[in-house]
Structures are given as C-alpha cells and as structure tokens.
Amino acid sequence: HCALSAHRTAGTRSFLSRAWELSEQPLKKLVRRPLRLRLEAGAHEPMEPVSTPYQHSLLKDRSQYDAEWRRSVEDPAGFWGDMASNYHWEQQFETNHQSENFDVRKGKIFQKWFRGGKTNLTYNCLDRHIERGLGDSPALLWEGNEPGTDKVLTYKQVHAAVCQLANWLKANGITKGDAVAIYLPMLPELPIAMLACARIGAVHSVIFGGFSSDALASRVKNCEAKVVITATGGMRGKKAIPLKRIVDKGLAKVSGLVSKVLVYKNPDVPECDWTDGRDVWWQDELASQSTDCAVEWVESEHPLFTLYTSGSTGQPKGVLHTTGGYMLMAGTTTRYVFDLQPGDVYWCTADCGWITGHTYLTYGPLLNGAASVVFEGQPTYPDAGRVWAIVQKYKVKQLYTAPTLIRALINAGDQWVTKYDRSSLAILGTVGEPINPIAWQWYHEVVGEGRCPIVDTYWQTETGAHIITPLPGVWPQPPGCASLPFFGVQPVMLNEKGEELQGAGEGFLAVKASWPSTLRTLFGDHARYETTYFQPFKGYYFTGDGTRRDKEGRYWITGRVDDVINVSGHRIGTAEVEAALTEHPGCSEAAVVGIEHAVKGQGLYAYITLKEGHEYTDALKKELVNIVRSQIGAFAAPDVIHWAPGLPKTRSGKIMRRVLRKIAAKEESELGDTSTLADPAVVDALIANRP
Ligand code: ATP
Ligand code: MG
Q1: From residue 606, how far is each of 236, 557, 595 by CA, in Å?
Q2: 132 sits in which H/E element
Q3: What backbone torsions phi and psi does residue 358 show, to the nearest 5 degrees?
C-alpha cells in the first residue's frame, strides 16, 4: 500500500469554483449552464506504470501504435478497408465507404459505414472458419451452474444448431428486419439464438434473464418482437429462476404482439405453465429442422440488434447497432485488445444480456475463431474459488471481467485464488466502471502473478466496442488508466463551452468523428438520441463521462459528469475518492455521493462496505477519513461515513449512485427508475442503517 500511495498526488488540486450542483440535473440542462472548471496541466501525477513481459503479436511498441492510430484517423477509408478485408463481403462496399453527420447544426444526425456493401455477421463468425478448416475447433465451452456440468460445441456444431433455429424462425414467419426477443439463461442456446437471428437478418433484442416481467414487457413492446425465445428457467447458484413464468406475466401486459414463444426445456427447471397455440418446445420443434440454412446477405447498415443500457444514470436507453460497422469493430478490437487468435480459450464473465456479452462473449471471439467460455452460474458458487477453478479447468488465456467481481473476490481472500493453477492466463481485462488502483494491483499481482498485462477497457453500450483501451504489452500500463484510443477513434477533452482542450488536464470526454460501431439511433426515439449524445456539445458525440489526460496523452476516466461533486469550489470525481478509500485494508467497496452542505455548497457522503473480519468502529472511520486527507487533500475528506451492508447495483454490477444520493438526502421516496436494480432489499438495509 505504501509503495502505491507514494505515487499518488498529494492534495493540492484546486479548481475555480462556481455553484455546480450536478447531482440530479438532466444532462441537457447541465451542459447548458455556464460551468467553469480550471484545467491544470499536469496536476495529476499518474501512478507508476507497470511493465509485463507480454509481447503483442501484431504491435511492437507505442510508436508503432501511434503511427497506425494516426493512419486510422487520417485515412479511415484505407485503414478500415484493410481491416474489412479480414472478413467476407458478399458484395464489396464502395471505396469511399463512410458518410455521417455528427453535427446537429447541420441537420439530422446519421452515420453510415461501408456503403453499398453486403455481408452477414453469422457467416463471418461460423461458416468462414469452417471453410478454412476450423470446423472441428471448439467455439463455445459451456460451464454449467453446478461444477461438473459442461459441454463443448465445435464451430460445426454451433453452425448446425444455429441453422436449425434459423430455419424454425423462418418457418414461423420471421423474415429480414423482424424483431426477436431473447430471454434465456447463460446456456449455449443464448449465443446460438443471437447468431440464428443474425443469419436471417432478424433483429435480436436480448433481455437479461434477471429482469422482471414489467421490464420484459416494456422491452418486448418497444422492439415490437413477434417471437420470444426463452427457457423453462435457469439456475443462479442454488436459486431457480422461473423464466417462462416471468414471460407469461410480461406478455399478458402486451397481448397480441407476440405470436410464438419458443421454450427451451432446461432439465434443471423442468416445469412451466403453457399457452396452447402460442408456446412450443425448442427440443421438439428444432430436431426436425435442417442443419443447413442459406445466409441472408444484408446491407452494411441493416439493423443487427437493439439492446438497453444498464440504467445506472436513469431510464435505460434502447440502443440500435447495425451490421457492417459493428462487425468490423467487434472483430478488430477483440483481435488487438485481447490479442485473440484462433484456438485461444477466452473467457468473458459478462451475461449476454449486456453489451459486453454481445461484443466480447459472442461476436468478437467467434469472429476471431477462438473458443469462448459461456458460464451459466454465479462466480462465487459453490464457493469463492469458482472463477479460478474454471480458469484452471479450461486453461483460460484471456480473462475479461468487471471491477465489481474483482472486489468481491478480493474480499474472499487470496487463498481461493492461489489454490488453482493460473499459469494459462496471459491477458486480464476489466470493464464497466473505473477500476480502483488497489483492485487493479490485486488483479495484476495475485491473479496474474505480475505476468499478465491488464486491459482496462473503456466503452459503452452505445459505442458498440472498446473506444479507449490499453493494448497488452504495447506500452507499460499505470493502474486505473484506460489509456489510449483504439484505432479509428478520436477522443477529445472539452471544457464547459465545448472547446477542445490540448495537453494534460481535465474535462468532458467526447468523440470528434464517427467510428464504425457507434450507435445509429435510440430505437424508436431518434430525438432522444440527438439530445442525449449530440446536443450537449455541438459537433461531438458526448459520452457523459469525465476524464483527465496526462502528459503522455493517456486518458483516465473520472466517472460520470453528473456524479462530480463540488466541495467549496473543488471539483471532485467520485472515482478518485473511492479509490483512496479502498486503499484502506478493511474497505471492500466505497461509493461516494454529494450532499447539500450549508457552508461548502456540497459535502461528501461515503458509503463503505467492509471486508470480512473487519468491524465498523469510530477508529476505523477516522482512518478512512485520514486516508482521503493524505491521498487527495483535506477538502475531499468525507463528511459522513455510512456503513453499508451492501451497495445498490445495476444488474450489470455497477453502483447506482443516483439511488445513494437520494438515500443520503433522505429522499428515498423519489428513487426514480429502479427497474434495473439488482437487489431492492439493499436499499431498505441502507435506510435502516443510516448513521
Ligand atoms: P445508463 O447509460 O443507462 O446510465 P450505463 O452507462 O451504466 O447505464 P453501459 O453502457 O453498460 O450503461 O456502461 C457504460 C458506462 O460504464 C460508461 O459510460 C462509463 O461510465 C462506465 N465504464 C465502462 N467501462 C469503463 C472503464 N473501463 N473505466 C471507467 N468507466 C467505465
Ligand atoms: Mg450510459
């Protein structure tokens, strides 16, 4: 801890003040206000970068990356043309393949990539590899909820299963452009269902298997699904989730829309109710379908899927992605960021209900001919060693997970990790939230034995693929830093007036020009698309996140701009204070929000969860406050410490700070949209535990 602390900045960061109450302001209002923030070049000393012996198979060093990145933005047609030649195009796109409007002042926002081209994503994920002799290599490695239950599916087997389902969909009236809702547990049938839709040009909308019947109903209605693919149920640890029952309840609310429900009979949860004429069994219906299904060649801009964001900041947004550009970015980022090659065993722990499960469990790995692990269960079931048992069992080379899980596993103790052989691991990845340096270090040292580079990938449902990310072994990596833009992406740091800032400093993170996998619209609401992403700063895509940039040009994500707290004129990013708090050996997780403060404008309110074996005492409280004082400065010292039995998280595992703000302000009657909250009981426990 000491070595780590020495590299942190001592707390003299000062920012010019202006009443800046960001807490519950909608983004629109927020950026229209005359915000002021002073940018101090070089104010933030990065922590010491960490080198690993890993050698990337495509890139030698940072200077080669710099040259290729420059080419990718100066000559996007040339660069993406080269990348596109790795894939099959049934009809070649035009050389001048891109057209876009990124500026609301010039009219309607649109982006089109690979104009004139025709391709098919499933063909590129499966048939292409089978044709080049990889058909018998494993494509999906399924690990069931119970240890010892598993299944290996080769590329040929996945292809056959995909074709059978695609034929069934066609036989049931689904044609190009129709929407299909998928509500399945993490069985191989889930990625298979996605691939089957893409094969015939149907638009899939995966609904995370933890969602309630209301959330399901609104999503089915919004995407106008004609068919729902589900299962009798699924297992999460010891708990059976009655998926079909939830579908029945949900569809009762949107009657008339869905004509067929295809039900996979999961032997672990065999029972369910039945609606004759609507419900049919997967196992009965598909067996008779042919294992060959002609590919539907679709235009580059043909819709591929709709998917909702996590709902961390408000009502979830229904993002639409299209075929050609998404395919290119999914395949290319996976190739570079995980250095993924045919035959690699790769494991992304995300559920297919989230964008990470789309791009980095299904499409990205399969586009690269790798074997992708599909894990049905919970990472701590039957015990805290499950993740490492799976790594050992399959000899996983690349492991991709989220800070929330890393922190939970730290909590369980190193002995769970070291018990298993992790020598197969070469690259470790993280996504979803800023990773606090302590968790980064543990991931690097304990999990990766100091050998594996960590890729802290920054991206969003909207961006479709990584946009700012380390490339493993290409440059030394400071803990907690997303680092540099991926090829073809031009991030900018803006001030409150929307002016681009140069050099080191801090500001709003935006992107200057279209990239292939950017979202095309919010489904059914193009106006919200423009207001959310393009109105705040004219001429740019606005991410909603803040960033700082160091002297080396590396980006450090500081968190959502609407989570920034202004204490006596000091702008404080939640990520920074949380990172300091978690440096305390007793602190498992920390979440910081702003509260009204008579003198300072805003004060800091910190929720703390403790590691096992630590007790909440006044002395500990003092230590926590002191750690922030010494790491950042007295101005950032929390005013309130709230001992939290658990933190409210989205179902994708992110802390919902907007809920914490309401609890801190004693306004828990106005929690807003909590449909994506993983465990509502956490909220009651927090209220009961108020200091
Ligand atoms: P909503 O948009 O509905 O509020 P969400 O933003 O959490 O939900 P996602 O698209 O799943 O939905 O998450 C994207 C966000 O996650 C980013 O905008 C950023 O705030 C955060 N994020 C993702 N990866 C990283 C990372 N490596 N470092 C820091 N933050 C990250
Ligand atoms: Mg978001």
Answers
A1: 31, 20, 10
A2: none
A3: -75, -60
Q: Which residues contact 425 (CB under 8 A, 6 or more apart)?
A: 391, 396, 397, 398, 399, 447, 448, 451, 452
- Is the separation of the CB atoms in 87 and 124 below 8 Å? yes
Amino acid letter at 237?
G
Dihedral of CA 218/659/359/95: which sign? positive
Tokens describing residue 391: 């790594």
- Say yes or no to pLDDT of 102 above 70: yes
Q: Where are the alpha helices (DSSP H) in 75-137?
A: 76-84, 121-122, 128-131
Which residues have their alpha-adjacent CB atom under 5 A from ion ligand 2? 309
Is-catalytic flag, 284? Answer: no
Output the residue whose Cα is nearest ligand 1's atom 15: 460
Supply φ then ψ for residue 466, to 5 degrees.
Answer: -55, 140
CA 555 to ligand 1 center in whole angstroms: 15
Cα distances (angstroms) measured from residue 427 to each of 221, 319, 341, 396, 472: 40, 29, 13, 10, 7
Structure tokens at 660: 């914490």
Q: What is the pLDDT of residues 262-310, one digit of tens each?
A: 999 999 999 999 999 999 999 999 999 999 999 999 999 999 999 999 8
d(CA 672, CA 25) in angstroms, rounded, equals: 13
pLDDT, tens digit, 9 for 90 and up, residues 306-359: 999 988 887 889 999 999 999 999 999 999 999 999 999 999 999 999 999 999
Q: Whose CA is nearest to atom 29 of ligand 1?
A: 434
**Cis ω before 382 (30° cut-off from 0):** yes
Distance from C-alpha of 290 to C-alpha of 165, rounded to nearest angstrom: 9
* Strands, E assignment, 376-469: 398-401, 427-430, 454-456
Q: Which residues line ligand 1 (CB under 6 A)?
A: 309-314, 316-317, 355, 431-434, 456-461, 482, 543-545, 557, 560, 652, 654
Angstrom distance (rounded) from CA 583 to CA 589: 10
Reported as a pLDDT band with limits 50, 70 and 90, residue 192 is very high
Q: Which atom of ligand 1 is nearest to the CA of 560?
A: 20
Supply 297's token pair: 């060649």
- Closest Cα partner for 451 from 428, 485, 483? 428
pTM of this structure = 0.90
439 CA from centroid of ligand 1 (Å):
18
User: How much is the pLDDT for 310?
Assistant: 85
Query: Given 339, 550, 562, 563, which residue is catalytic?
Result: 562
Contact of 604 with 567, CB cutoff 8 Å = yes
d(CA 651, CA 589): 17
Tokens of residue 319, six digits = 């993002």
CB 375 within 8 A of CB 143: yes
Atom of ligand 1 nearest to the CA of 316: 3
Residue nearest to atom 13 of ligand 1 (CA): 460
Ligand 1 pocket: which of 219, 348, 557, 673 to mutate (most atoms <8 Å of CB)?
A: 557
The band of 43, judged by pLDDT with boundaries at 50, 70 and 90, is very low
Task: Compute the distance between CA of residue 464 and CA of residue 331 in angstroms, rounded to an integer.
Answer: 11
